Amino acid sequence: MLSLLTHIGRFTLRQLSEMGRMFLFLLSALMLAFRPPAKLRLIIHHIKTIGVDSLSVVLLSGFFTGMVMGFQGYYSLRKFNAESWLGSAAALGLLRELGPVLSAFMVTGRTGSAMAAELGTMRATEQIDALYSMAINPIKYLVSPRIIAGLIAMPLLTAIFDVVGIYGAYLVGVGLLGVSSGSYFSGMESSVVFNDVYSGFMKSLSFGLIITWVCCYKGFHAPPMATGVSQATTESVVLSFVLILIWDYFLTSIML
Amino acid sequence: MIRVVDVHKSFGGQQVLKGVTLEFATGKITTIVGTSGCGKTVLLKHLNALLLPDRGEVLVDNVDITKLRQKELYEMRGRFGVLFQAAALLDSMTILDNVAFPLREKTEMSESHIIKKVEERLDQVGLEGMGYKYPAELSGGMKKRAGLARALIMDPEIVLFDEPTTGLDPVLATGIHQLIARTQQAFGFTGVVVSHTIPQVFEISDYVAILAGGVIEENKPTREFRASQNPVVQQFIRGEIDGPIRVL
Asked: Which residues of B touch A129 (CB under 8 A)?
């Protein structure tokens, strides 16, 4: 019994200290991001890596998510003779929930994992030590620009996901299932308010922070070996997914 | 002058350094030898505080660098150049950008001056015209030379070499040793070399120290080291299995 309690205690302490280290890592990266000189070229480079390189997967997933919403929404709304509200249902679902969450999942899988693997490899091949030894702070050089880029790129990708998703639902609802084009857009116009867009924007902004923070942390502290890199990559994806869902719950409950 | 005093270091319960005390003469090359995994690289990484000791002091010009604040530590690290075992070139950059990197990040030099200085250093290490290549396109020896060019670009007072010839053929290893000796004579830096490439490394060393069992067993000028009757030194030089160093 005592041994079990000891194990639980040790595990809890380990998790708490890991959380503390993660928080300090984020704090340090954010503080260094605002300390001159600004790494504008690096930020632009990472916006390209996170944003442009994830664009195709975000477009594809957004389009198909929208089409599925078109089918499912039509099926549910028809039971209440409310098919004309399809545009409203699709837009609210995408703007408030599915757009931010699914595009964050796509970016985590596409870019976050690559970020963790790249930093993990840099750790294993002593490139991070080389930066320290050249008197260059690796957190300012490697992590801060990625976090800033994530904060900029994620809302943009989410906006693209939303627009493509709404168009996908329109194609299915109006093109295949015969919902009137006018009622699709007028329903959307009458029910979507600024707070819906704002809520989605805030979610995508915080998801951008979560993805870059978690993936950079895991990669930066990866054990310096091949298995260490793969372990860091897996952990970064899993932890990002979990934190996105938990944070999504809290934000939704606050901003509803 | 660099001095390590009674440095202890453990990793996960395994004690690697058990009270290392060693002094590195200014403007000379000191080589630390020892069996693989004995803690040479760990000791080297303490010299510019890439690792911090559990106990003990690392003194650079009588300042204990283990107690420096972050800003002072970064300033102190600016006095060092490091050639890592696998060169540790940033693989997203060309060789020219790698060598230019510390100048671009740490100085106000104009781009034309930076390029001129980088090309000069690349010439000195025999990599003229290779600046546009990426690290992945270079052989092991070329990477080491590019790493050396980067280590020397800020004209450091102290250069640390972590196994500079590991993985290279004997001819290339001799070439790298000669390059270290030549650049040391040209720039006058204090060199610390970690190696087990004996006896070749003796040719460039002013002093040799042997690390065994977590402590410095012997530290002498090269000629005296070679003639030492210390059984640890003799076993290591002769490469014998039987002796005070337990390998298997």
From this structure: 45, 50, 82, 84, 88
Which residues pair with residue B32 across a beta bridge? B194, B209
Any idea how long chain A is? 256
Nearest CB partner across the interface for B48, out of A122, A133, A137: A133
Which residues does chain B have within 8 Å of residue A31's beta carbon, measured at their own beta carbons? none
Q: Do A135 and B91 touch (CB under 8 A)?
A: no
DSSP summary character for residue B139: -
Cβ–Cβ under 8 Å, residues A219 and A120? yes
**Residue-wise over B113-141: b if at least 16 C-beta within 10 A, else e?**
ebeebbbebbebbebeebbeeebeebeeb
Task: List the one residue out of B189, B184, B190 whose CA is nearest residue B24.
Answer: B190
Question: Cβ distance B238 to B229 under 8 Å?
Answer: no
Which of B189, B112, B110, B109 lies closest to B148, judged by CA? B189
Taking only the tens place, the pLDDT of each residue in A130-174 is 999 998 999 999 999 999 999 999 999 999 999 999 999 999 999
Q: ipTM of this model?
A: 0.87
DSSP, collapsed to helix, strand or coil, labels residue B36 as coil
